[in-house]
Design brief:
By secondary structure, this protein is an alpha+beta fold. It is built from six helices and four strands. The protein has helices spanning about 5-10, 25-35, 55-60, 95-110, 125-130, 160-165; strands spanning about 45-50, 75-80, 115, 140-145. The radius of gyration is 18 Å and the shape is globular.
Length: about 180
């Protein structure tokens, strides 16, 4: 069993997948993990759409026109039910944040299970709505292909903590 930090370091964006089906019980456990993510006021505004059939993937190819996108055994669309998302008093809607947290849970659960994922947020919104037959109240936020990686992990470039962490205020340094 790896530590959480080791698991996070192990996750990377996978763009090549083996031609191997994901066991249904494993896929359901990963989806359950995503459903356990925290959300604003525990409203849980997420809707997960799992795409596995080739004919649906062919239609979905127009949503994000990269050959690797539909090559995975499954693609998951994480959507927000805007009637269920919480709004702050100033009108800030937390639905997208809630979906991002669920997506993070999903990607980490997939990594722990030996599967790969890749965040896809730059997609054709109207085409996604059409292919997924979404009602107006359901907004697609992010997609991920999911499957057994056919690639090796890539080294992640990350900023150093002293570049991104501030103490007590924006100008505060460690030890102040």
């Amino acid at each position: 069993m790896s530590t959480f930090l080791e698991l996070v370091k192990k996750r990377y964006s996978v763009r090549t997948y083996q031609d191997k089906k994901i066991e249904e019980t494993l896929l359901l456990k990963i989806l359950e993990t995503a459903s356990l993510a925290p959300s604003a006021c525990n409203n849980q505004p997420w809707v997960f759409i799992v795409i596995r059939k080739d004919e649906t993937k062919k239609k979905l190819a127009a949503v994000y026109e990269r050959p690797w996108f539909c090559a995975a055994p499954a693609i998951i669309a994480l959507c927000c039910d805007i009637t269920q998302s919480w709004q702050r008093k100033d009108g800030k809607n937390y639905g997208e944040i809630d979906i991002a947290i669920a997506m993070d849970h999903l990607t980490l659960a997939a990594t722990e299970a030996g599967l790969g994922t890749c965040w896809v947020a730059n997609f054709n919104l109207e085409e996604a709505r059409r292919v997924l037959t979404l009602p107006e109240t359901i907004e697609p936020i992010v997609f991920t292909p999911i499957g057994y990686p056919a690639s090796v992990p890539v080294t992640k470039k990350r900023k150093k903590l002293d570049e991104i962490v501030h103490w007590e205020s924006y100008n505060g340094k460690y030890g102040d």
